[in-house]
Amino acid sequence: MILCLVLASDESGGLENHVLTLANNPLINEKYQVHLIAPDRFRNDVTTASFHALDATKSRKNPILLYKLVNLLRSIQPDVIHAHANKAASLISTIYPWLGFSCSKIATIHSEKRNTKGFSSFDTVIGVSHRVLNSVTNNNKVVIYNGVDVDMRRIRSRDFLQQTEQLSNKKILVMGRLVEVKRFDLLISIAGRLHDCDVLIVGEGKLRGQLESEVKKKKLNNVFFLGHRDDNIELMSASDLFVICSDREGFPYTLVESLRLHIPVVSTDVSDASLILPAENVVPVGDMEALYASIRKQIDDPEANKEKLENAFRWAQENTSLNNMIDQILKQYDFSLMSG
Asked: Residues 188-230: pLDDT tens digits?
């Protein structure tokens, strides 16, 4: 059986890592002959699947892009097409009548979108959270949370950051691309009141200069930009609190990783945070004062608050392993093939 994954994004983030994880997963490659259609920049990240480069920077209605995609799929002749995110779903929805063969069509929606018409024609729509599926019109919708495996050998004690970064205060960690939607400006705005904490910002992006200027303007000596790091698990396991302050999220891998490491999390009300975390750990989007109050509560009484998170820690252990995610996705492939 032939599986073709389709990715139209050429950024670097959770979506792209998710698709590469599927393309390289041994369980999927054992069951299917896997092909990946994606921008050429991902070619060297694919270790097992057959890779097919597609420049998807053009409009989703661009005839050259559509023509090339049709020809690629005709050459592959997949039994299952799995499109990831809105643009790929829209492209597959548009060109499917032109393919000249039938196959199962599955799409995964990775973030909240206003226009989800492209997902309506798929046999199955997978959502990485309940919230991202709210706007999707399709009779067969299923939530499959992002799964990760945490290498226990990478876990570090609290003094790791004191040794590597010379930081001795309590550690508040945020991670992600430095872009508007992540709202790291909220955390910077309250950092001056978190005088007993070091705020560590991991990631790169177009707003780094602007955010660093704001820190300098406010004369904050407890905010540190660590840039891109390959030791995210080490940093996370050595932190006292992980914070998600975004305006929107599909389902952040960092939430899963933190909970699987038993690191407390404070999050804005994005994705399925309100279904997973205690109410006091979830604050309204954009509410700086509520964010400060929740962080302050976690920092001031960590043991009591960590106890309240036990159900969330347990849920993450039981439901968000990589194998669990892969098993659920494979079941959807099987179901789609049987239904077809």
From this structure: 999 999 999 999 999 999 999 999 999 999 999 999 999 999 9
Same structural domain, 57 and 178: no
No. of H helices and E strands in the chain?
15, 13
Give bridge partners of residue 201 from the DSSP assignment: 174, 225
Q: Please name which of 262, 239, 265, 242 lies closest in space to residue 174, comparing C-alpha atoms.
A: 242
Residue located via tokens 């559509």: 66
pLDDT in tens, 148-173: 988 888 888 777 777 667 666 899 99
Tokens 């599955």 correspond to 106
CB distance 233 to 256 below 8 Å: no
Closest CA to 51 of 59, 65, 61, 41: 41
Sign of CA dihedral 262, 238, 305, 192: negative
Nearest residue to 265 via CA among 239, 284, 289: 239
Say which amino acid occupies 125. Answer: V
Neighbours of 8 (CB within 10 A): 25
* Same-domain pairing of 216 and 264: yes
Token pair listed for 340 = 């077809």
3-class DSSP state for residue 19? helix
> Range of 262's domain?
152-318
In one letter, which amino acid is 314?
R
Exposure b/e, 72-90, CB count within 10 A at least 16 = b: bbeebebbbbbbbbbbbbb
Number of domains composing the chain? 2
Q: Are residues 174 and 92 in the same domain?
A: no
CATH number of the domain residue 109 falls in: 3.40.50.2000
Q: What angle do CA 172, 176, 178 make, to 5 degrees?
A: 105
Assess whether 138 and 20 both reside in one domain: yes
